[in-house]
Design a protein that fits this description.
The complex is a heterotrimer of chains A (490), B (110) and C (486). Chain A is 37% helix and 18% strand. Chain A has 490 residues and is α+β, with helices and mostly antiparallel strands. In chain A, β1 and β2 form a beta hairpin. Chain A is elongated and about 90 Å long. With 486 residues, chain C is α/β, with parallel strands linked by helices. Chain C folds into 2 domains: 8-298 and 385-481, Amidase signature (AS) enzymes (Alpha-Beta Complex), CATH 3.90.1300.10; 303-380, no CATH class. Chain C contains 15 helices and 11 strands. In chain C, a hairpin with a 5-residue loop joins β10 and β11 (449-455). In chain C, α2 packs antiparallel against α3 (48-63) and α9 crosses α11. The two termini of chain C are 16 Å apart. The mean pLDDT of chain C is 96. Classes of the chains: A alpha+beta (490), B mainly alpha (110), C alpha/beta (486). Chains B and C meet through α1 and α2 of B and α9, α10, α11, α12 and α13 of C.
């Protein structure tokens, strides 16, 4: 399904504020097509098992093999999961029909793929990146996966130069949803963030395990470049991107390749290109004899799918809290930005609810967050215990460094009373006067550093802080030290 | 009716030999030159005959793709019987290592 | 004493009552096959051993006091596009010449469970594309009533099998008339039920939105019982009706008093005078039996042929793409996969099949979809509207089944368009999904049988059967009168 390019820049006006990729005066336009394997027990149109790793050609039935006389019957759970992910992506879930996409290929058992064309199940959604950039989602539709070919005799198992190929149809018929974004992406980092966020959503709603490395999520990038404000130029489709990191690299390479062509006055041919991770370039695939004519027509063996308001609302009501909402929740109680690294990391690990728990027990949310970021195992400690610890730290009863050590003990012991552990370790809060005299001593001992620091060289502070920490045997509170130094500077 | 013979070639062929050739390729069929000529004449005569629907006013008519008024025919996500692999592979033209073997896949997009 | 063959209903009752043995019955039918099928060529494959084995099983069941089912011991022919596990299913094509399906069609399972005995797989036009069974890769089937003539098609083998008493009942498929037209040419009853009434699972697809499996029989009651046996919802076919088996026998003899029978005043011309005469006689017979004849107009009926010959080949071009030499069937070796596809399909498919595949591919291709396939589906809607309007005024419609009696072998073989015209009267009900059946109603030119077609609205197959039974009774009465009154 090709993306309809809407030459409608600033599709979401708020996107204007975000950084764009730029090279030699050209900007980047990217749309992503993501295929996701649904986590059902059986295939999309037959009850053969949807299982990975079994002996070749054991999860087969007449429908899977496209045997004469076989007929498809739609899997209800696949529809349920498609509705779930559609709603999670803010799509309108609508009445949909199936269509045949006709083409010959050995891993296509019927020589047509049953997909959705005119009327896909999900349309007009969006996905917000953690930094607030919004990528529109044009459509999401159900379709069946193909079998797998292994090429024998060529270099590195590639098609090129192979002697023959072997086909396994275990994967044929596995349910896929193809999610097509609008060409709103303007930076390779946005593309990466889109895929990462999409994955988080798919996993959260249980639609798929969405692992690029295992093939349960496959990303194709449609890339073009243009002068800002100009019409969209011809795009190329990039395939064979197997990780988020590769996606960024591939887009960067392809965009630069196209800029070179434009600059040289040469046309960019619309084509599919293959990303090669090893040499870091995209390559044109062997060109097809004719442009694909898929001769789409309505699948006569299936009937319309009209989920209806009841089913859709039931799915909506049962949706779990999505990653973005979880991050927003943390932002609210910690005061940090929802896309700050700490919140991103902790939420991604699934420890956001732990922070919320600690806060409920009266603990300090932002301090908890910081500790969790560095010590994920802390999420295994009872929330009340961490609450007490962070309260002590927040009130100055423990320095940050001391708190870290107490927490580490709690992790080892599976919990504990913060006060008791602190006392055991001989931690006492350092009084301000004692601290101030240490600071004065350090200033006196390093007049050059002090002069540089006063002149505005923030780096010079490091030497001073280092001396103070050494003198206090690590017990000084770094924040308090910094505050004192700054106060004395002015 | 009854006397519409293919011997009559329409004034303007409804389909050209180039079109027939393209269509044959799409359908993975190979025609000899003679067959191409014959097929072009036959298909052209047929399409000429079928041009009777060109005159109909079909504005606003909803296409009828299926006779069935059914909707939402689905099955539960429960495993069913699979085929016996040996029985299936026994009917295959060429098999290796439990998989279907085909000659090199060239000239086709991956 | 009538020389009518024993009906399937009587055969089954005799077997279930222990009055006759299935093995004896089967032997009788197999003997006739042995004697005459070399000449007729109704069968691609005769299943003599399997039939005898199954007959013995049926007899065993009866002797143990178990009921083998409503078709117990009835010899049945299956069109060779119905999948039979472990038994070659060829569609009369080289490309499937040795293929043994690993599964049974639903129809086959239901028939077996009803006690039927399969005597053989019958010949057809290759992939069900044709109206004469001359397009078979295994030679044509001859009309048993005159072996210089065709039995009709595409289910010619099944029609001939019943006509020649090689089987008591047989099954075919009807996409544009492929049951009704051969039934008419062979002088037997042939039924295309409401679309979806019979499962298509295991029927090798030609035109998916048009295909239906249906029975051939000597009598309307036999056809009713056969259809009851195979019909009803199949969860394996998403287009199958959401109800149980059709209920046809109970109302069969209710007659047609008060029924409104439609005469289509603007029906396409082209039926031969003998066929026209028999159709008139059929209207008379129904009127005599108490029906009311009403006039209806169906202007779109005329465009049925065109719509069909754009839609059916389009669907077929897609359905037949799976025959690519990869997983089953014939493969012609070649140095690469693409060439292998082309070589296999060029070698394996016959001329008519290739012709329709190309026509269908063209009708769907980029730039032409709207003009051809898209347009044809709109014409289909117009035809359905015409039928709906007609059925507001009439309960059934009466038309010829075939424009002529059986024609000579070779007559139309070189003129595809002339051959297509054979289905003028049957095609529209395939497009709409309504049922239709052909009933023998007397003799036409050259002493050959003429069939009259009864059409009814979707799921009104029982009303259609009632009218058919009335016509059949009329013919029987007439024959009896002829015999006794002479």
């Amino acid at each position: 399904m090709s993306i309809t390019y809407v030459n409608d820049d600033g599709y979401y006006p708020s996107n204007e504020e975000h950084p764009r990729w730029e090279h030699e005066g050209y900007e980047l336009v990217v749309g992503l097509e993501v295929h996701v394997e649904l986590a059902t027990r059986t295939k999309l149109f037959s009850s053969a098992p949807n299982r990975f790793g079994d002996e070749p050609n054991t999860n087969i039935d007449p429908v899977t093999l496209g045997l004469p006389g076989a007929l498809p019957v739609l899997n209800r759970q696949a529809v349920e999961l498609a509705i779930r992910l559609g709603l999670a992506l803010n799509c309108t879930v609508q009445k949909s029909t199936f269509a045949r996409k006709n083409y010959f290929y050995p891993d296509m058992p019927k020589a047509y793929q049953i997909s959705q064309y005119d009327e896909p199940i999900n349309i007009d959604g969006w996905l917000d990146l953690p930094d607030g950039f919004r990528v529109g989602i044009e459509r999401g539709h159900l379709e069946e996966d193909t079998g797998k070919s292994t090429h024998v005799g060529g270099a590195g198992g590639r098609i090129h130069g192979s002697d023959y190929s072997l086909i396994d149809f275990n994967r044929a018929g596995v349910p896929l949803v193809e999610i097509v974004s609008r060409p709103d992406i303007r930076h390779p980092e946005q593309a990466k963030a889109y895929v990462t966020e999409l994955r988080g959503i798919l996993v959260a709603v249980g639609a798929s395990d969405a692992k690029m490395e295992e093939g349960s999520m496959r990303v194709d990038a449609n890339v073009s470049v243009r002068k800002p404000g100009a019409d969209f130029n011809t795009r190329c489709e990039i395939k064979n991107v197997n990780s988020v990191r590769s996606l960024g690299r591939a887009i960067e390479y392809e965009a630069r390749r196209q800029v070179l062509l434009h600059e040289a006055g040469e046309p960019v041919t619309q084509q599919t290109r293959h990303w090669d991770e090893n040499d870091g370039r995209t390559h044109t695939l062997r060109s097809k004899e004719d442009a694909d004519d898929y001769r789409y027509f309505l699948e006569p063996d299936l009937v319309v799918v009209d989920p209806g308001i009841e089913w859709i609302e039931a799915v909506r009501a049962a949706l779990p809290v999505l990653p973005s909402a979880r991050r927003a929740g943390l932002a609210a109680i910690t005061g940090l930005a929802a896309n700050s690294e700490a919140i991103m990391v902790v939420t991604d690990r699934g420890h956001d609810s732990f922070v919320v728990d600690v806060a409920k027990h009266g603990g300090d949310a932002s301090i908890t967050l910081k500790h969790l970021q560095q010590l994920p195992e802390a999420a295994g400690v009872p929330a009340e215990d961490v609450a007490k610890l962070t309260t002590m730290e927040a009130s100055g009863g423990l320095t940050a460094t001391q708190a870290k050590q107490v927490l580490a003990d709690m992790v080892d012991a599976g919990g504990g009373d913060a006060e008791a552990i602190a006392t055991d370790k001989g931690f006492e809060a350092m009084g301000n006067t004692e601290l101030e005299s240490m600071v004065d001593a350090a200033i006196a001992a390093q007049p050059d550093a002090w002069e540089k620091f006063c002149a505005g060289e923030g780096k010079a502070m490091g030497a001073l802080v280092g001396a103070i920490m050494k003198a206090s045997k690590g017990q000084a509170d770094g924040k308090a030290v910094t505050a004192l130094l700054n106060a004395k500077k002015s | 009716m009854g006397g519409d013979s293919l011997r009559r070639v329409p004034d303007v062929p409804k389909i050209s030999a180039a079109d027939v050739s393209k269509v044959a390729t799409l359908a993975r069929l190979c025609l000899t030159d003679d067959e191409l000529t014959t097929a072009t004449a036959e298909l052209s005569a047929m399409l000429d005959h079928f041009a009777d629907i060109d005159a109909l006013d079909l504005d606003g008519v909803e296409p009828m793709m299926q006779p069935t008024p059914l909707a939402n025919v689905m099955r539960e996500d429960v495993e069913g019987e699979t085929l016996d692999r040996d029985e299936v592979l026994g009917q295959a033209p060429l098999v290796e290592d439990g998989r279907f073997r085909v000659p090199p896949i060239l000239g086709i997009q991956e | 004493m009538s020389d009518q063959p024993t009906t399937a209903v009587d055969l089954a009752r005799n077997v279930r009552d222990g009055v006759a043995k299935a093995v004896d019955i089967v032997d009788g039918y197999l003997a006739r096959i042995d004697e005459r099928d070399d000449e007729i060529n109704a069968f691609n494959l005769v299943l003599a051993d399997q039939a005898r084995e199954r007959a013995a099983e049926i007899d065993e069941m009866v002797s143990l006091g178990r009921d083998p089912g409503p078709l117990a011991g009835v010899p049945v022919g299956l069109k060779d596009n119905l999948c039979t596990r472990g038994i070659p299913t060829t569609c009369s094509s080289k490309i499937l010449a040795d293929w043994k399906p690993p599964y049974d069609a639903t129809v086959v399972t239901r028939l077996r469970d009803a006690g039927a005995i399969f005597v053989g797989k019958t010949n057809l036009d290759e992939f069900a594309m044709g109206s004469s069974t001359e397009n078979s890769a295994f030679g044509p089937t001859k009309n048993p009533l005159d072996t210089t003539r065709v039995p009709g098609g595409s289910s010619g083998g099944s029609a001939a099998a019943v006509a020649a008493n090689f089987a008591a009942v047989s099954f075919g498929s009807d996409t544009g008339g492929s049951i009704r037209q051969p039934a008419a040419l062979c002088g037997v009853v042939g039924v295309k039920p409401t679309y979806g009434a019979v499962s298509r699972l295991g029927l090798i697809a030609f035109g998916s939105s048009l295909d239906q499996v249906g029975p051939f029989a000597h009598t309307v009651r036999d056809a009713a019982v056969a259809l009851e046996t195979i019909s009803g919802h199949d969860p394996g076919d998403s287009t199958s009706i959401q109800q149980g088996p059709l209920d046809l026998s109970p109302t069969l003899d209710l007659g047609v008093a008060g029924l409104r029978v439609g005469r289509i005043t603007d029906l396409p011309k082209g039926a031969s005078p003998d066929v026209e005469e028999r159709l008139e006689a059929a209207f008379d017979a129904l009127r005599e039996a108490g029906a009311e004849i009403v006039d209806v107009e169906m202007p779109a009926f005329n465009y049925g042929l065109t719509a069909y010959y754009l839609i059916a080949p389009a669907e077929a071009s897609s359905n037949l793409a799976r025959f690519d030499g990869v997983r089953f069937g014939m493969r012609t070796p070649a140095p690469d996969t693409n060439s292998m596809y082309t070589a296999t399909r060029t070698d394996g498919f016959g001329t008519e099949v290739k012709r329709r595949i190309m026509l269908g591919t063209y009708a769907l291709s980029a730039g032409y979809y709207d003009a051809y396939y898209g347009r044809a589906q709109k014409v289909r809607r117009l035809i359905a509207n015409d039928f709906a309007a007609a059925y507001a005024k009439a309960d059934v419609l009466l038309t010829p089944a075939s424009p002529t009696v059986a024609f000579k072998l070779g007559d139309k073989a070189s003129d595809p368009l002339a051959m297509y015209l054979c289905d003028t009267y049957t095609i529209p009900s395939n497009l709409t999904g309504d049922p239709g059946m052909s009933v023998p109603f007397g003799i036409g030119e050259h002493g050959l049988p003429v069939g009259v077609q009864i059409l009814a609205p979707a799921l009104k197959d029982d009303v259609m059967f009632r009218a058919a039974a009335t016509l059949e009774r009329h013919m029987q009465n007439h024959q009896d009168q002829n015999v006794s009154g002479s």
